[in-house]
Amino acid sequence: MARGSRLARVPALGLLGVVALTGCTPNNEFWRWGWPDGITDEAVDMRNLWIWSVIAALIVGIGVWALILWSVVKHRKRGDELPKQTAYNLPLEIVYTIIPFLIIAGLFFFTVVVQNRVQDRSEDPDVTIAVNAFKWNWQFVYPETTGDDGQPVDTIGTSEEIPILVLPTDQVVRFEVASADVIHSFWVPEFLFKLDVIPGNENGRDNVFEVTVREEGAFVGRCTELCGTYHAYMNFEVRAVSQDDYADYLEARESGLDTAAALESIGQPGGPQSTQAWDLVDDAQRADG
């Protein structure tokens, strides 16, 4: 068999291997390459976009590496005679102009499709949560409730207390986020989504998003926009519970119980499970020496 034919098999076998491996489910941890699995319907779309983008990049990479190897072997020095020089190759130039354009166009198309799906708003969400960010903590308001003081039930974090946002599973939850001062960013890693909280945008479309949580548990939330001295301490927790437990939690809050007591009344730990509060005063004193 000619050397050129054997070399031609290298990229072909590489591409065949990648295609064969893609028959495995994208949910497999190997294919996520460190990308979180996600706990929402929206996270599935974003996870798949990431996985298939990386697979496409691997296919392109294998092709490029194979062409480089072929060029090195095919055009290696065989003597002192200068090989034929080619100044222009119009067909080749057209090919390596069109192919990158098609790759970029494909990535752009699928990114826009996923983005539109993730940012889609329902006409009537099951639950609405108002998220208020401020230096350097969070307030979560349940607008459809009425506490014993006549105001909507809310949970607000302090330097000693991590705010816990309780959500129901298998329901469409709408977040209306706002900032009291500077730009913050609402991020729950397991949502595979974050949204910058821009002050002055009175809960406009850009400050609204929806998710449907499919897994119960405790998940850390963070601010991912550098917002000042204690930005790194601006954590919160999402506690996803069943719909019945969520209804019982809100009923307990409306009766006058605080967040911890209401969580314990439905059999949940009253304190945060995924993060912790820090003593900002002590930390500042240590930083000052």
Automatic annotation (TrEMBL):
It is a multi-pass membrane protein. InterPro entries: CcO_II, CcO_II-like_C, Copper_CuA, Cupredoxin, Cyt_c_oxidase_su2, Cyt_c_oxidase_su2_TM_sf. Pfam families: COX2. Residues 124-252 form the Cytochrome oxidase subunit II copper A binding domain. Its main location: membrane. The chain crosses the membrane at residues 50-73, 94-114. It is found in: Membrane. Residues 264-289 are annotated as: Disordered. PROSITE patterns: COX2 (PS00078), COX2_CUA (PS50857), PROKAR_LIPOPROTEIN (PS51257). Keywords: Copper, Electron transport, Membrane, Metal-binding, Oxidoreductase, Respiratory chain, Translocase, Transmembrane, Transmembrane helix, Transport. It catalyses: 4 Fe(II)-[cytochrome c] + O2 + 8 H(+)(in) = 4 Fe(III)-[cytochrome c] + 2 H2O + 4 H(+)(out). The keyword Repressor does not apply. Its EC number is 7.1.1.9. PANTHER family: CYTOCHROME C OXIDASE SUBUNIT 2, CYTOCHROME C OXIDASE, SUBUNIT II. NCBIfam families: CoxB. Belongs to the cytochrome c oxidase subunit 2 family. This is cytochrome-c oxidase. It comes from Geodermatophilus sabuli.
